[in-house]
Amino acid sequence: MQVRKAKIKDIPEIHRIINFYAKKGLLLPRSLSELYEHIRDYFVIEEDGIICATCALGICWEDLAEIKSLAVLEEKQKRGYGKMLVNACIDEAKELGIKRIFTLTYIPEFFSQFGFKEIEKILLPHKIWADCLKCPKFPKCDEIAMSLDLKEE
């Protein structure tokens, strides 16, 4: 399997995968219009013509990006697809000259494999909270904030 940038034709499947997990309270839901608007942020893994995993690198500021919407179909998990997608996001952030990546997650042990460290959410800039306003759990977020400093890489 290979990671690639998302294409317009992938959006309905990306939408389905992300919102499957959003219904379980594990991801923030994404509308079709939002996905089309931010298509350049998304990576996918396709297997036998089917999108089976996705993840996005959202640029927040000149030196900060967020890894978000990491989702792998349940039947395709434990194959390393999540790792491939996160590595693609980290590589793109480095290419762009981003100095720090953060994520909000329920699985900190997964992100710690890449060197992410837990941080207090209050340390994140206010700009990132725009997405949080759309979350049904706001303002009682139970996700863990994690950060990776790329200057050390």
Which SSEs are present, and which pair or pack?
Elements: E1 3-5, H1 11-23, H2 32-37, E2 42-47, E3 50-61, E4 64-72, H3 81-96, E5 100-105, H4 108-112, E6 117-119, H5 129-132, E7 144-149
Parallel strand pairs: 4-5
Antiparallel strand pairs: 1-2, 2-3, 3-4, 5-7, 6-7
The largest sheet is:
7 strands, mixed
The low-pLDDT segments are none
The helix-and-strand class reads alpha+beta
CATH topology: Aminopeptidase
Please give the radius of gyration in angstroms. Answer: 15 Å
Number of DSSP strand runs: 7
CATH class: Alpha Beta
Overall structural domain count: 1
* Overall shape: globular
What is the H/E order? EHHEEEHEHEHE
Mean pLDDT: 89
Strand content: 25-35%
> What is the CA-CA span between the terminal residues?
26 Å
Helix percent band: 25-40%
In spatial order, strands of the major sheet run 1-2-3-4-5-7-6
CATH superfamily: Gcn5-related N-acetyltransferase (GNAT)
